[in-house]
Amino acid sequence: MEEKKKVEKEEEAMSEAPPFSHQGGIAGQKRRSLLHATLLHVAIRIKYLFSSWFFLKPVLLPGNTAYPSRFTPEGMPRIGLPAQYAVHLLWLVGMFLRSVPILMYVLAKLRVMQILNWMHSKVMVCNDRV
Predict the structure, then answer these.
(1) Residue range 91-99: average pLDDT?
(2) DSSP string over 59-118
(3) How deeply is 123 buried, as exposed, middle or buried, from its count of CB atoms within 10 A (0-12, 13-18, 19+)?
(4) How many CB atoms lie within 10 A of CB 93?
(5) Cβ–Cβ under 8 Å, residues 27 and 33
(6) Are 58 and 64 in contact (CB under 8 A)?
(7) pLDDT in tens, 43-89
(8) Which of 93, 85, 72 is nearest to 123 (CA)?
């Protein structure tokens, strides 16, 4: 008997819920103005800027992310901080050089690209030993 009353209450609650309008919001709900939505978006970005230490937190903390994945295998070795900083430096240089190809040519002539390739091979060899 009690279960029947629970089911009836749930059905009543679902029938009383306001339907969604075709505009993407709940019917009867007041929409935000463009200025209000823009200010909320800016506030969220500023909050993330400060909570991530001006976007340096993912770069400086160990691991590529602060949130461990549940899909990470149990016996997977962790990368050391010097190797992580070397990989981040290589990523940064690689991203910058992709946007300025003439600089890549200049650095190749100055043998800087060989140093980066050597550094990459040393980092990968060190991580294979772990």
Answers:
(1) 87
(2) HHSSSS-SS--TTS-TTPPPPPHHHHHHHHHHHHHHHHHHH-HHHHHHHHHTTHHHHHHH
(3) buried
(4) 17
(5) no
(6) yes
(7) 999 998 898 888 787 777 766 555 667 777 777 767 777 888 888 88
(8) 85
What is the value of pTM for the model shown?
0.48
Fill in the DSSP letter of residue 119: H
Higher pLDDT, 109 or 17: 109
Q: Which of 75, 74, 89, 86 is nearest to 124 (CA)?
A: 86
Q: Quote the CA–CA distance of 44 and 56 in Å, as a whole number.
A: 17
What is d(CA 94, CA 83) in angstroms, rounded to the nearest whole number? 16
In the chain, where are the structural domains located?
31-60, 77-130
Confidence check: pLDDT of 31 > 70: yes
